[in-house]
Design goal:
Length: about 240
């Protein structure tokens, strides 16, 4: 039953009784699909190609981290050409599946774990050239990295400890699909120049240039001294002839 109330404009405003209240529309509950298991990830995940703007190509390989999370890893010791020089680089690209720590364990004994991957790492036998940080920043350009069907730019930066690197963090790959499951990947890129913490800042270049000027001045002094001695000998010889 409802009642009517007169409004200021002469109309009527209908007041609903409790029994006539309209019920709000029910929201459809979200259907949560079962997560992929760690075993399933290792069985179906395939190496992902990685291409750099300097022409080098690598692969991101599926693995299980020590923390229990799942993802892909690229870890290589390589040489990058910079002008007429070469720099030794530790390449690391880490792509971790979000919330993968909570995935059911399954059996990942057949997959590559972080511990096993570390055993396979081999340092490059070739040593890179020594740079100054100023020289490196001048020669090194932004490194373009193509992976997961997208292109990312790793910028040249100096670390807090004073090392030089190409780096890009905070990359998110949305809804990566694997065997009927979707999950996000959190990706970071770090290409660190070996022993770059020992590189000089570059101010020594100015000192070497000033050192060159000093050597030229010292050479001029030697020439003057030689000329003076020659003149002295000439005068003595003339005196002997007169006698």
């Amino acid at each position: 039953m409802s009642t009517a109330k007169k409004t200021k404009t002469g109309g009527t405003k209908r007041k609903l009784e409790k029994s006539e209240n309209v019920e709000p529309a029910m929201k459809k509950p979200k259907v949560s699909l079962p997560s992929i298991t760690k075993r399933e990830f290792m069985e179906h995940a395939e190496p992902m190609p990685v291409k750099l703007s300097n022409g080098l190509e690598f692969e991101l390989k599926p693995r299980q981290n020590r923390t229990g999370s799942m993802g892909f890893l690229l870890s290589e010791h390589v040489m990058f050409a910079l002008g007429a020089k070469k720099v030794a680089v530790q390449m690391t690209i880490n792509a971790t599946a979000t919330k993968s720590k909570d995935w059911d364990e399954g059996d990942v004994s057949d997959g590559e774990s972080e511990k096993n991957a570390a055993k396979k790492k081999k340092a490059t036998p070739e040593k890179g050239d020594t740079f100054t940080k100023k020289e490196f920043k001048k020669l090194a350009k932004t490194m373009k990295v193509t992976m997961f069907g997208e292109e990312f730019e790793a910028e040249v930066k100096e670390t807090k400890k004073g090392g030089m690197q190409w780096t890009k963090s905070g990359i998110k790959i949305k809804e990566y699909e694997l065997n009927g499951h979707q999950f996000d990947l959190q990706v970071s890129i770090n290409f660190t120049c070996k022993r770059s913490t020992d590189w000089k800042s570059g101010s020594d270049e100015d000192e070497s240039e000033s050192g060159g000027e000093e050597s030229e001045e010292s050479e001029d002094d030697d020439v003057k001294e030689t000329k003076t001695k020659t003149k002295t000998k000439t005068k003595k010889n003339k005196k002997k002839i007169k006698k």
